[in-house]
Amino acid sequence: MSGGMYLVDGKNLSLFKDKPIKVLLAKPGIDGHDRGVLVLAKAFRDAGMEVLYAGLLPTPEEVVDTAINEDVDVIALSLLNGAHLTVFRKISELLKKRGIDDIAVVGGGTIPDGDKPKLEKLGITGNYGPGTPLSTIVDHITARASEARSRKMQ
Amino acid sequence: MKIQDIINGILNGDRRSIARAISIVEDDEMVIESSEVIKGIYNHTGRAHVIGITGPPGIGKSTMIGRLARILSDGNKKVSVIAVDASSPFSGGSLLGNRIRMQESLTENGIFMRSLANRGMNGGLSRSTWDAVKILDAAGNDYIIIETVGAGQADLDIVDLADTVIVVLGPGLGDEIQAIKAGIMEIGDIFVVNKMDRDGSFLAMKDIQDSLAMTPQKEWKVPVIGLDSLKGKGYDELVSEIMKHGEFNGSRPNIRLDRFMKEVEMALQAEIRRQYLLEARELLKSKDAIARFSGEKIDPYSAAMKILRSGKAGL
Fold first, then answer.
1. Would an 8 Å CB–CB cutoff place B110 in contact with chain A?
2. Which residues in chain B are closer than 8 Å to A63, comparing Cβ atoms?
3. Is A68 on the interface with B (CB under 8 A)?
4. What whole-number distance in Å separates Cα of residue A106 and Cα of residue A25?
5. pTM of the model as a whole
6. Which domains does chain B have, with CATH numbers?
7. Is A152 on the interface with B (CB under 8 A)?
């Protein structure tokens, strides 16, 4: 929303800012390669989002628990170990089991093109690989977050 | 989710309702919804023991809270944790990182944990944190732990909000401890020196004890406890002092009234701020008039007065 401006720490802020998008970044499963996910965390923060990182080796249950307790808009999953079909599916099943339809799930990592339609069928979109521009990912998350938001309002 | 469903959910301890309710009180533009939620649950609050934990960054607060929450949850007690982090004043975004160091004890012990970003709002942080505590209280928590970072305004807020304030310090703060002490010696009900495995920790304890000895004695004798959070040493003593302080609070009837007065003040501030936002939005609607002031080289103070007098920028 546009409107008046006020000054905080020398920076103009709109009086009527939209509520920041809240994202949970997680690498569920056995995968310790977190350089990429940390870069994403900073990029999302700089795009004005509130970012939670679930740390290394959370279980799918912990990821879903955290997403619910923190009332996030988007869960962003990253795996480089090839277990995405198993683990991402588990998370989308847990969400369904707990009756949650207002949290969007996006994926990324080393995901073969052939697997992407299977993930999309589960509602897990994006599925970006290495070399994707950060702005593409930020835009995608923003779009999915606004979908999730509109379902929260119902 | 409807507000009434959320209220019923909170009273039944449903996590989704609790989480959504906290999102509502966190949202600066949902003052009306927030007040409806608080109205609906207020009669069910006042039972939880609220423990505030503060101290400089990197001193091990999150690790300590992970352990403490687990110990307090033994014996079927319900424990929740709220961690407050700063938002970037530039992008408005934030990295809420405290969870990582508590993670392992949360899910398996059924502990609810929520991160709050302060969103750069003046006063917004305190109100949303107070309301979040009310929500967790009504949801039947026995203990609510709040973590805040650093010294300053946030610490002063925590004195009003928490039943028991724990100040966490550590060895190796050196001269910094002198600076920190200025605002912090008065607020702690319990002092903790974390990282007792490190050099200088006994000196740090002695230093704190010395400064406490110089402040005027009150009814409650402030203990200084050494903790080794890696090995879990010292936690028995910490928990027993927390319990003792809870009983001590029970003997002070004024606490409740003081807190209520503070809450009314904050509710008033929130409502005035909401009205101000609406008013300002209306007043600044006409960009043309403001552009004209600019063209006529009218200074901003005079422009503001003109707008106020005429009631709108349209003139």
1. no
2. none
3. yes
4. 10
5. 0.84
6. 46-253 (3.40.50.300), 266-310 (no CATH)
7. yes
